[in-house]
Design a protein that fits this description.
By secondary structure, this protein is an alpha+beta fold. The chain has four helices and four strands; from the N terminus they run αββααββα.
Length: 165
């Protein structure tokens, strides 16, 4: 029992460090771009990657961004609830892959939550495009949320099904 508690505490510390590291990287990159790139200016890095500072008042893909302000509080509440749910899941999860995937997503959720609480919008700046195809502009937190959720889906629906059959 002591050994299991020790492993759980170590995993929890690692989880907190992962989330904290992601939050720090996310906030540093957003701060750098906001202080060095003019709003809505496109800085081409390559044929498929640009840096473009925008303020996203909505959710993913700028959903709800055209509303009159109520969405900011709504998204803060949703992000806060998601943070609590992910913290609970991290505390009960026994699968290491899923455990760390939750931690990666949690760091992204909190990174964007900090923006919303501090400024009322999320800073997005990574612009991926190819010819006439354009992805929505995103940030480091969005990448981490997507990676974490993708790992959870792969783990739950592909890896676990393969080993159960």
């Amino acid at each position: 029992m002591i050994y299991k508690n020790l492993i759980f505490k170590n995993n929890l510390y690692i989880s907190i460090l992962i989330a904290f590291f992601i939050i720090i990287i996310d906030q540093i990159t957003k701060n750098y771009v906001e202080n060095h790139i003019q709003y809505n200016h496109i800085l081409n890095i390559s044929n498929i990657l640009s840096i473009t500072l925008i303020y996203n008042y909505g959710a993913a893909f700028s959903i709800l961004s055209d509303q009159n302000g109520w969405q900011i509080w709504f998204l803060i509440i949703i992000s806060s609830i998601a943070t609590l749910i992910f913290l609970i899941l991290i505390n009960i999860e026994k699968n290491n892959i899923k455990y760390y995937a939750l931690s990666i997503s949690l760091g992204g959720i909190i990174g964007n939550l900090i923006d919303r609480m501090r400024q009322g919008y999320v800073i997005d700046f990574i612009f991926v495009h190819y010819k006439d195809l354009y992805l929505p502009i995103f940030n480091v937190a969005d990448i981490c949320i997507s990676i974490g959720i993708t790992i959870i889906i792969i783990n739950d629906y592909i890896i676990n099904k393969t080993f159960k059959n």
